[in-house]
Amino acid sequence: MAAALRLNTFFSTLSVIILLSLTGATKSGFTVDLIQRDSALSPSYNSSHTNFDRLYNAFARSISRANRFKLSLQSNSSIQSNIIANDGEYLMKISLGTPALEVLGIADTGSDLIWTQCEPCEKCYKQDLPLFDPQQSSTYGNVSCNSCLCKALNTASCGTDQNNCQYSYSYGDQSFTNGDLGVETLTIGSTTSHQVTLPKIVFGCGHNNGGKFGKAESGIIGLGGGPLSLVSQLNKCIGRKFSYCLVPIENSNFTSKINFGNSGLVSGNGVVSTPLVAKDPSTYYYVTLEGISVGNKRFAYKASSKAVDSNEGNMIIDSGTTLTFLPQEFHNDLISAVEKAIDAERVSDPKDGLGVCFRSKDDIDVPITVHFTGADVKLKPINTFARMDNDLVCFTMIPSDGLAIFGNIAQINFLVGYDLKAKKVSFLPADCTNHGSFYWC
């Protein structure tokens, strides 16, 4: 399942201001786990799956997700949270309601709405955790259909009682969620001593949901730039700053981290930053890709005839897409250079999902640098090649006729920081399995 689904309809630019009180927050922030979907720490872990099965399934979902992007484009306290990788995607653990009920949502910088499956369930996909029941929470409230919050959603409408705001989303891969827009107390933090309680967070209570979801995920936690994302709703508290550090997929016993607020600032030797470009829809985090180097050979970015944009803001950074997608002609140039740099036979992968693979029992180490405006990000082999089998290694950048996407494999073992106030995103090489290496106060 591709980690957060791309909406066919976009939020308006309406500003939403929500007053929040942080209970239990410390100056250094708090922590929530991001759990890898296919790791031993994930509820969906399947010990019978081979490494090839896990990677191929993740890549297949990534391709489906990229297609959804294309369709949708056509149409000051500190908080830290942990992230769980989920078959190339990352799950964020929160709690909703009073008493609190645990929710595992896909952490997604490419979508806005926070939503989870709810009782009563008209149609729901199977999930491992109990469904959230708003009637069992003393802090749940409906959003009025006449409120500015409801009007922020183009697909919202009034319920049968002409008061409750109802939403309906459909996605490019026929996935969907429908339900009530509500407000609820959200608790976030990986330990009791580092938890904060956030009242009146707007979220979707989905009663009719379906699509390519796994049993581990209860819904989606939108971290995009739109008005109803978690980042936007926490704006007054976190100063519009957050960062994450994603552990390698094979490190199944480690959780990743996501930091909000002051601890989300990225600094230190080796940090590079590139401007965020303001474009519609406001959900996505746009940057400008100027080129990519293979060894000492630099290739200037060029868009295919079908690409969405070849100018400023021609690429989005997305935590929910596994692979990196590049325009076909530009990708062809890179592959030609990669082939010359590798002493291995080029082959097709067994299921024709990736296309560009090499027969090699040895690790492939080709220096590849991504050139964003003002920021040269030097990738390591773990960011560009995936070992699918004992003697099969595949390139994790693939061609696309849509918008270029910088996926989460390319972001592994980087501290990636978003400073929406300063309008920039920063990259700092890091060992993301070493949790203590990226705590900033």
TrEMBL record:
SUPFAM superfamilies xrefs: Acid proteases
Primary location group: secreted
GO cellular component terms given for this protein: extracellular region
Subcellular location per the Swiss-Prot or TrEMBL entry: Secreted
Record keywords, A-Z: Aspartyl protease, Glycoprotein, Hydrolase, Protease, Secreted, Signal
Signal peptide start and end residues: 1-28
Source domain of life: Eukaryota
One Pfam family recorded for the sequence: TAXi_C
GO MF: aspartic-type endopeptidase activity
InterPro entries linked to this entry: Aspartic_peptidase_AS, Pepsin-like_plant, PEPTIDASE_A1, Peptidase_aspartic_dom_sf, Plant_Aspart_Prot_A1, TAXi_C, TAXi_N
PANTHER family, alphabetized: ASPARTIC PROTEINASE CDR1-LIKE, OS07G0603500 PROTEIN-RELATED
Protein name: Peptidase A1 domain-containing protein
Organism: Quercus rubra
Lineage summary: Eukaryota, Viridiplantae, Streptophyta, Embryophyta, Tracheophyta
